[in-house]
Every structure is written in structure tokens, then in C-alpha cells.
Specification:
Helices cover 45% and strands 15% of the residues. By secondary structure, it is α/β, with parallel strands linked by helices. A hairpin with a 6-residue loop joins strand 4 and strand 5 (186-188). The radius of gyration is 18 Å and the shape is globular. The termini are far apart.
Amino acid sequence: MPHLAEGIARFQRDVFPAKAGLFARLATVHRPGTLFIGCSDARVVPELITQTDPGELFVVRTAGNLVPAHTPGTDGVAAAVEYAVTVLGVRDIVVCGHSACGAMTALAEGRDLSGAPAVAAWLRHADASLARTAAAGRAGDVAALVRENVAAQLANLSTHPSVARALTQGDVRLHGWVFDIADGAVEELPAAFAYAA
């Protein structure tokens, strides 16, 4: 923890003064243009990858960058998506997968997750991704599963009423990305691949 306290001190001493005007504006205005749905993995930092300032991205991070399909009831991911689209009026939504994803690796390799039942239950939201990868003849291929998972999560995202409505009205665009940790590359999936159900 001392390194976090040191980081806060450096932020307050070196970073904040240079961006004081930005933070003063952000204290009263919250208008991000993009909802970025990424993995909880500590190696994937949306603001670093996109080189955006505070206030530009509305970020949701989940294990495996999973977005459950819409269902009635309370759901933290659904609430964040609805807020971003309906209240904040984001114009773009990115679902970003990444290389060496622990969630996708566990699924591709069929790892026993009985000791982590909450994780196992959460990863059921990637069942369609596994099926898509198997149908493409790439079962067990982590990189293929990462790509298929981004596409499947975009399909899930479009089942949310706020997103479906915004898509129909042309108010929002969906994007599927895959970030490669080793070389820093970001691949944007072709729209046809990303939206295939």
C-alpha cells in the first residue's frame, strides 16, 4: 500500500496542477463520449491504451469483458450501460477483449472452476463465445475465443433496450476491439464479424 500513497502524492504534486482547469470543469460536467467495456485484468487500462483524459470514457470492467444479455431485474452491468446510453448520451460503445485473458484461457482450456463458483457462474455469459469458437473449428484456441467473445458480447449488448433503441435511431455505434498486451496493438474487428449473432 505505501506505493499507492506515493502515487497519490505524485498525482497531487505533479499531475493535478497541470490539469487543474480540466478537473475544475469535470467537477460540474460529466459528458463522456464513449462507453468502454473492458476486462478487469490489471494489465488492460482503457485510459492508458486510448490516451484519453479523465471524463472522456465511461468505463465498465468485468471479468472477461462480459456483458450479460438483457433480462428483467437488477444487474450492475445493465444499469451502467443504460446510464451511459440514456443519461450520458454516449455516441460510441467499445467492447474490448485482450490477449492472454485469464477468463478466456480458463474457458478454452476447460479448467475446473469448482473452487470458484461465482467465477464459474459469471463465465456462463461466455457460453455463446465458446459455441462460436467451436463452430469455427477453433475450440481450445484462446486467441480465437477472445475474438469470438468480443463479438458475442456486442450481440448481448444489443439486447439491452437502451442500446437497441439508440442503435435504431442511429444515436450510438458499437465497436469490437482486441488489445494485444505484448505489442500494444489494438485490432478493431470488422463490423460483420462483430455483429454476427
